[in-house]
Amino acid sequence: MRRPPRAVARALQTTGELLHVVRLRRQRRTGEPLIVSDVWLPAELAGTLTESALRKAPLYELVKRTGAVVDRVQHEITAEIAGPRYAQLLKTAIGAALLRINRLIFAAGVPHHYQSVLLSPTRSRLLLTQSSDELEAADGLAIAHDVRREPR
């Protein structure tokens, strides 16, 4: 149990402590590191989402067993440079490009938990599927530009 970073607390609309789960996911056959997963969940799930339970079942399955029904997920995909910690965990070079996917997961229409995954684009890629209705409505995928304004 820990206090989340401000951005996570703001997204989850909380000021209290949350259950914090950090995992290194590996390719089953080769053991190659694929993803560093950093998840912030409601404190009341601490008794259910134990280290032992997480070894036996995927997080999303355990969350579902608690009765939480996920109704949507908001994804944000960014790039960053590998610092020493993540370079070591993901067995990549310091300074290598990494992809970060931040997910805000909603249940019953309100933010339920926050997951951030970090991965190397040399081992993983992102796939997205949209229906034609979503595509025409520009729903499901948007590109946001973070451009600095020139001083006048």
Automatic annotation (TrEMBL):
Pfam family of the protein (one): UTRA
Domain (UbiC transcription regulator-associated) ranges: 2-125
One GO-annotated biological process of the protein: negative regulation of DNA-templated transcription
Entry GO MF terms: DNA binding
Name this protein carries in UniProt: UbiC transcription regulator-associated domain-containing protein
Organism in which the protein naturally occurs: Mycobacterium kansasii
